[in-house]
Write a structure and sequence with these properties.
It is built from 17 helices and 17 strands. The chain has helices spanning about 20-25, 40-55, 85-90, 90-110, 140-155, 185-200, 225-235, 250-255, 260-270, 280-290, 295-310, 320-340, 375-385, 420-430, 445-450, 465-475, 490; strands spanning about 5-10, 30-35, 60-65, 115, 160-165, 180, 205-210, 215, 245, 275, 340-345, 355-360, 390-395, 400, 410-415, 435-440, 455. Strand 1 (about 5-10), helix 1 and strand 2 (about 30-35) form a beta-alpha-beta unit.
């Protein structure tokens, strides 16, 4: 067996040059994880995945983070809704259909593994990295909708991934940037584990680890590197039989503490079957040598689990019929329309005769490693101008307006994921004292309870969510969504 088959790597761009082809021939990795930088068109991506498999073998994994919402990598496929949009829409059948639709598009391009759905129970409204990627704060809802999404994906031939074990939902820091530490007691941790126990019972193909230090489980090592968490808890107590894959070992929660080789060695010893060994070619080579040092007795059972999963989810690239794609786009728009949610008692919505201004932040400062950029403010302005031709666009930053809005009614949009600056909170409240103001929580839904003003929540800046939001603002539709757990006023401590 090839020890480096226990590694998934990334690629630098949309094509392979001679050096990268030689690198893949030499090490015969288990597969690759794709990012936006690897995608320029569908035809190009299909060619790339085919070439990777010609070099690594037809059993190689082509994996991707394509959750929906702000975490999606193939821009010209239909854009799926965020998990929390599905929670607001409320239907498990929709979640199942969305999971299947996502898989159909990915499968047509040669992808057979999606790192979704997120099964974290988002218990912390200030969580900097999960938020709307979760189905909410109620484990039962996370199970109901998350497992439906996974079932839809796997039914269409793309392996799903329950992540991030043992639960990233109550963290206050982003593991892309530093190591989060959880001080939760066992009763709280038991809630986080419920969706993963359900995933194990349902036989979801893969579980992804979390780079978090959960002191009650292992006071010294993050879950990704912990034998107590991955082998004793996940394999032993929970009884999970599928593939265990690490989150990216390039994330600073790990890479600030361990070299690429040491991180790979530790996660495979802890119980992972596959290590996500991303980084430059030199780091990948170091990771491969580390895997080779571990020996066949440890790696052979991992290789067999990976091979069994690959037989269950073989590569099936092919067409994406236009009629099916159109139906999937219609599904995503239907979900987006059902998801738009009111926060608080809404004021009368603006009328075409009013002078109206849309206020949008000029800088969002997001985590580039996971979220894809979106010019949400400009897109929303273009959509709303179809209903309000004279709509003024005004930028704001650090509590200051770029210009004075000449308007009788203000739409105050928050279009980023990061926490709202205190200066912007103060700006919104000052403006709300002067004239009617409606908050549009375009992306992060927790901005609505944080700001505390009447709001509409769309859960994402994708085209369908923005269109649905614009339709409600135009008074053409009533908001239909229900507030997911963790966003309801009683949950958030609001009056």
């Amino acid at each position: 067996m090839d020890p480096e088959r226990s590694l998934l790597i990334d690629l630098p761009g949309p094509e392979l040059d001679a050096a990268w082809r030689a690198h893949l021939r030499r090490y015969r990795f288990g597969g690759v994880c794709l990012f936006r930088r690897n995608v320029s068109s569908r035809a190009q991506l299909a060619a790339l995945t085919g070439e990777v498999r010609s070099l690594l073998g037809q059993g190689a994994w082509i994996a991707i983070d394509h959750e929906g919402g702000a975490v999606w990598r193939v821009a010209d496929l239909p854009h799926p809704p965020a998990a929390m949009a599905l929670a607001a829409a409320g239907s498990a059948e929709w979640a199942r259909e969305v999971g299947g639709a996502v898989a159909r598009g990915l499968r047509s391009l040669g992808v057979n593994w999606n790192f979704a759905p997120v099964l974290d129970v988002n218990r912390n409204p200030d969580n900097p990295v999960i938020a709307e990627r979760s189905f909410g704060a109620d484990p039962a809802e996370v199970i109901r909708l998350g497992l439906a999404f996974a079932e839809g994906s796997e039914r269409e031939g793309v392996m799903a991934t329950a992540k991030h074990f043992p639960g990233h939902g109550n963290t206050h820091t982003d593991s892309h940037l530093e190591l989060p530490a959880l001080e939760d007691g066992l009763e709280q941790l038991a809630l986080d584990l419920l969706p993963f126990r359900a995933a194990a019972r349902a036989g979801i193909g893969a579980v992804m680890t979390a780079h978090i230090l959960t002191r009650q489980l292992d006071p010294e090592l993050p879950a990704t590197l912990s034998h107590r968490v991955l082998t004793e808890l996940l394999r032993g107590q929970i009884g999970y039989l599928g593939l265990v894959v690490s989150d990216s070992l390039q994330m600073r929660a790990i890479s600030d503490r361990f070299s690429p080789g040491e991180a790979v060695r530790r996660t495979l010893l802890a119980g992972a079957d596959l290590a996500l060994a991303l980084g430059p070619m030199e780091a990948q080579a170091e990771a491969a040598e580390a895997a080779r040092s571990l020996g066949e007795a440890l790696l052979a059972p991992k290789a067999e689990r990976a091979a069994a999963a690959a037989r269950r989810f073989p590569a099936r690239p092919g067409g994406y019929p236009a009629a099916q794609e159109q139906a999937d786009r219609a599904l995503f728009l239907e979900v987006a329309r059902a998801a738009v949610t009111a926060w608080g008692s809404l004021p009368p919505l603006p009328s075409p005769g009013q002078r109206l201004a849309l206020l949008v932040p000029e800088i969002s400062g997001e985590t580039a490693e996971i979220f894809e950029p979106s010019p949400a403010g400009l897109r929303l302005h273009a959509l709303l101008r179809a209903y309000f031709p004279g709509l003024q666009l005004v930028g704001y930053q650090a509590g200051r307006l770029r210009s004075e809005p000449l308007a009788d009614y203000l739409l105050f949009a928050t279009t980023g994921h990061a926490a709202l600056p205190a200066a912007d909170l103060a700006l919104a409240h000052r403006l709300a004292e002067q004239r009617p103001l409606l908050h549009l929580a375009v992306w992060n839904p927790y901005h609505a309870p944080r700001l505390g003003l009447p709001a509409l929540i769309s859960y994402g800046a994708d085209p369908y969510s923005l269109q649905a939001l614009a339709e409600v603002v135009s008074a053409g539709r009533r908001p239909e969504g229900r507030l997911p757990s963790g966003l309801r006023p009683a949950d958030a401590g609001e009056a």
